[in-house]
Amino acid sequence: MRLTEINFDGIVGPSHNYAGLSLGNLAATQHAGDPSYPRAAALQGLVKMRANMALGLAQGVFLPLPRPNARWLAEHSGDGAVDRGLLAAAWSASAMWAANAATVSPAPDTADGRCHLTVANLVTMPHRSHELPDTLRQLELAFGDSRHFAVHGPVAAEFGDEGAANHMRLALAHDEPGVELFVYGRSREGAGGTRFPARQSEQASRAVASAHGLDPARTLFVEQAPEAIAAGAFHNDVVAVANGPVLLCHERAFADPAATYAAIRERLPEATIIEVPESRVSLAEAVRSYLFNAQLVTLPGDGTMALVVPGEASESAAVSGWLDELVASGGPIGRVVPVDVRQSMANGGGPACLRLRVVADPATIDPRFLLDEAKAERIEQVVARYWPEQIDPTDLGDAALAESVAAARGHLLAALGLEELA
Ligand code: SUG
């Protein structure tokens, strides 16, 4: 059994649009009402996946969910007078941000030696709250081998859970036992945290850790800094990223940084913590550039790390100056790889939002969800042929568009042999 990290990227769905549904997500709010380009968006995602495969990394995919979600819309529309917000929520392609699909605890961390996944309930935002049933079906299919995986339903809806976007893992290597770090938010009176909703609750994090059978001695629950949430870091992965024994984070990511670092070092003395000071990159600039919403990956071969950043990060003078120094410092991160995911970025989703990391033996996963060049080519052809070129938010609700969006997804399912997800 060879445990490897596999990045599962959400393929951008054909209904991708900018309806401004996410309060606290500054990019999404700023782009509300803009025309979107679903075809270009999905192709950008594919270029990123291929670039990661070219680095020698294992890559998987998750499929877009059925949208518009007519049943959910009908259930919540009362007397039939549909409001625009609800309509847009039914059309959202938000499942592309696979980091929010589930929380994953690899086999070396769990009591029963299986990889555990808990689907996120995403209850804080109405447009994301209806992802879970279809996401769960996909997880149950992809990770259906119960000798190696346990797929859990969501934690109670009273407690908001946003999946891996608020979870990090530090370990000497992917296949060694790790320290799992759950980062929850709390809206505090007067601390600025009440301006935007805190989406991840501490209770949800604790419920996930318990369902996964994690060792309490290697599990940490840490509060996100309320000022980070107020600055637009609605998920922890906008201000921090971890890989192997390395944590890269903003100085103001955690409510109590010193205690957080000490707790990590106590459990993993080999941990390398790279803190980006406010004086070099402000919290506002970190959120604007999405520096931390990067994929920090271990390259096969020499074991050095690469940071896959959004193109926007290298356009910021402060960020690119800091990145140059990081690479020149001779530390564990030897390379910065910029990728263009602008269509997703305009809705607040960077390279890290678009993927869910699973440490597992690829041979134990349903191969239909694993990507190779031939399959990437097939996906590209379907997208190029059937994904709408452009959607204006005022188009949402149009019957012909709804039909072509559903048909486009159907063609993709057929191309991948996944018709059972229809
Ligand atoms: O939940 N955007 C997503 C972005 C999720 C990013 N994920 C991570 N940080 N892991 C969100 O806010 C925008 C949708 C709209 O406004 O139409 C949106 O849902």
What does this structure look like?
The protein is an alpha/beta fold and 422 residues long. The protein has a single domain (4-421), classed as 5-stranded Propeller (L-arginine/glycine Amidinotransferase, Chain A). 33% of the residues lie in helices and 18% in strands. It has 15 helices and 15 strands. A three-stranded mixed sheet has the order 2-1-15, with helices on one face. A three-stranded mixed sheet has the order 3-4-5, with helices on both faces. A three-stranded mixed sheet has the order 6-7-8, with helices on both faces. Helix 2 packs antiparallel against helix 14 (373-386), helix 3 packs antiparallel against helix 4 and helix 14 (373-386) runs antiparallel to helix 15. The longest helix is centred in the C-terminal third of the chain and has 18 residues, at 399-416. The model has no long low-confidence stretch (mean pLDDT 96). Bound molecules: N~2~-(3-carboxypropanoyl)-L-arginine. N~2~-(3-carboxypropanoyl)-L-arginine is lined by residues 18-22, 25, 28, 92, 94, 97, 99-100, 125, 128, 165, 234-235, 237-238, 347-349, 353.
**Major sheet summary line:** 3 strands, mixed
Structural class: alpha/beta
Order of helices and strands: EHHEHHEEHHEEEHEHEEHEHEEHHEHEHH
Tally of separate domains: 1
**Which spans have pLDDT < 50 for at least 5 consecutive residues?**
none
Number of discrete helical segments: 15
CATH superfamily: Succinylarginine dihydrolase
Strand content: 15-25%
Which strand order do you get reading across the main beta sheet?
A: 2-1-15
What topology emerges from the helices and strands here?
Layout: E1 4-10, H1 26-30, H2 38-54, E2 58-62, H3 70-76, H4 84-91, E3 102-105, E4 115-119, H5 126-129, H6 132-142, E5 149-152, E6 167-170, E7 179-184, H7 202-211, E8 219-223, H8 226-230, E9 240-243, E10 246-250, H9 257-267, E11 272-276, H10 283-289, E12 295-298, E13 305-310, H11 311-315, H12 317-328, E14 333-339, H13 342-345, E15 355-360, H14 373-386, H15 399-416
Parallel strand pairs: 1-2, 4-5, 7-8, 10-11, 13-14
Antiparallel strand pairs: 1-15, 3-4, 6-7, 9-10, 12-13
Helix pairs in contact: 2-14, 3-4, 14-15
Bound molecules: N~2~-(3-carboxypropanoyl)-L-arginine.
